[in-house]
Amino acid sequence: MRIYTENQIVKNNLIRCPICEATNIDTGGEIVCRRCREKIHDYKSISFHKTVAFLITAIILYIPANLYPILVTKKFGIVHESTILGGIMHLWEAGSYPIALIILFASVFVPILKFIFIIYLLISTKFSLKSSKIDRHKLFYITEVIGSWSMVDVFVVAILSVLIHFSIVEIIPGNGATAFALMVFFTMLSAKSFDIRLIKEGY
Amino acid sequence: MENSELDSFIICKKCHTLHRKIKLHHGTKALCQRCNTLLYRHHQNFIDRLLALSLVEFIALIIAFSFTIIKININGIYRGLDFSSIFYTIFHNHYYIVGVILIFFIFIFPIVILLSLILALILMKLKKSKYLVKRLLILIAKVSHWSMIDIFLLSILVAMVKLFSYAQLEFNVAFIALILVILLDIFTLKRISFSDIWEEYENIYRKSNSKK
Hints:
- The complex is a heterodimer of chains A (203) and B (212).
- In chain A, strand 6 and strand 7 (78-82) form a beta hairpin.
- The longest helix of chain A is centred in the middle third of the chain and has 30 residues, at 97-126.
- Chain A has seven helices and eight strands; from the N terminus they run βββββαββααααβαα.
- Chain A starts with a strand and ends with a helix.
- Chain A is of the alpha+beta class.
- Chain B has 212 residues and is an alpha+beta fold.
- Chain B has two domains: 1-42, no CATH class; 44-193, no CATH class.
- In chain B, the strands form three sheets. A three-stranded antiparallel β-sheet of chain B has the order 6-5-7.
- The radius of gyration of chain B is 21 Å and the shape is elongated.
- The relative contact order of chain B is 0.14.
- At the A-B interface, strand 1, strand 2, strand 3, helix 3 and helix 4 of A face helix 1, strand 1, strand 2, strand 3 and strand 5 of B.
- Strand 1 (2-4) of chain A pairs parallel with strand 3 of chain B, so a sheet runs across the interface.
């Protein structure tokens, strides 16, 4: 059975603490939560610049993550290197369509979607766009939730490098894995440092 | 605005719509009117139940960390996968950054979250050390985004499909323990919103303060 709470009109001066979920009054600057006494947000300009800085770092790291091999296979002394896209194509050709789609979604679509979402949210704070605030709140929520999904590829490489370690065939991680793991880390930081008040009021 | 007046409000985590809280009947839950996200629910024996589930989850996590997850057999040669071998191989191949990230995301953070939750719940049950409970709850909230043990299970499944065609696979006890951890996680931290735990925290310590 569902019971709805009495809906209230969105009051712009109330804000949710991301740690203890208590309702707080937004004073505009730096806020400390009344319940858990933790800092809710920096000054808006600081969190804006932090988000941009982390995002740029992540985008830069995305380039080597795709260009360098993520997986190196040594078979009878012959070294074969495969990048993320190469691996997906290989899986597709081998007929493992579901796995190819999972990797394609987790390693290619999710990071790009996150970049686009964060850039869109940042732009929408500077210019008044037509999209509703509720949609942008949802977009930010999705960005936070899908954040860790991109790590699948790095974990798979780590698992394969443990399991396939024989004298004739060996799998080791490539430099792309480091760049990719760092890229995921920085996009998560970027999403974390984004101030939701920017959605409400703009910069 | 008074604190008590602020306490009567809750903001949806997804669409940030403001709602006024109402008292719920047994077994019911409150959903956001705009996006149907769970706001809070009525709990019975909240702390006891959560504590029991987290203790089981902790035991399962220890098993998952200590034993072999899967074994592969290629032409009679066996290789096993466990957590220590993952970290050893990554560090052995000089991928220190990936190694550190992996250790934190799939080993340290899940353990820290569960241990802090268990400790916080025990202290809340004993109605002791308010400050420590608060710090532990803050720690859980901060770290919970970074625990990726569920993604790790998905990665094992992906790796298994990749190996399926040229190796025989054997599931071991840690694999079942890992599935148990993920299932229990859904019933504990993923199902319960943090506001419920914090409200329980406020109720417990307000009562014990007023007794004094």
